[in-house]
Every structure is written in structure tokens, then in C-alpha cells.
Amino acid sequence: MSKERDRLYIDKDDRKLYDNIQKEEFFKGKTRKEQFILAIAFGFFNNVSKSLNNKESGGFFLIKDLKLEDEAIIKSVALYKNEDLEILTKPEEYYQIAEEYAHAGIKLINDKINSISFANFKKQFEKDIHEYYQKIKEE
Fold it and tell me: Which residues neighbour 100 within 8 Å (Cβ) at sequence distance 6 or greater?
């Protein structure tokens, strides 16, 4: 009998990326869970996911810390990628999909922060969200 997982994981190499964004004003006071959810969103928004090569052994945060809204984001992303409602009954699979989007997303966030000033990153992020919202509204 397999034990149900109790935490979400990041790739070992991503720890330094999460530590790096923690230094930025926008991320100060944000929990690791909030950073992870934003990384999922960033990976999803850019349609990029990547398998974890080397899971960090202790996990990144506990699943019990997810709010209902966080679970909805994770399940929505998994459903979009998988296109099968059955995925919603398979926590191991939808958590893995979330980890893969976060793995790609955290790299994208760091690349963006390193390529432009952080103030510009925040403005660009707001602009991207607004444009995406307008696109959805038009569809």
C-alpha cells in the first residue's frame, strides 16, 4: 500500500532560485507556498513545464498548507494539461504536474528578474496579466 504524499517538492537546483527571488521587494513576506504557486502560474502562462531531475529530499512545503484557492489552481492546470476529468481523482499526478510547471516557472521568473530591473519586472508582470485577461475576455 503506497503512502499518500504530504508535501510538494522542488528540484534541488531550484532552492537557490527561490532564495534569490526572496530578496526582491515584491516577494518579501511571501511564503514558499505563495512563491511556488506564482512559479506554477508563470510556467503555465508561458506554456512551459519541466520534469524534476533531482527532488529535494525534505520537500518544499506541506500540502496541508494549501488553501482551497491553491488547490483549485493546481487542479485547473493539471486538467488543462491532461484534458481528462479523471486527473482530479489522482493527487499524485496533479501534484507532479504542478511541480513541473513550478520547476520551469521559477527559472523564468529568475531570468526575467536578472534581465530587467525588478521595478520593470513588476510592471511587465502586471501588463502581462492585464493583456491575458483582455484576451480571455474577448474569447
Answer: 43, 49, 50, 51, 52
In the block, residue with C-alpha cell 521559477: 106
Greatest Cα pair distance in the chain: 50
Cell of 72: 483549485
Report pTM.
0.86
10 contacts 60 by C-beta, under 8 angstroms: yes
pLDDT in tens, 44-76: 989 999 999 999 888 999 999 999 999 999 999
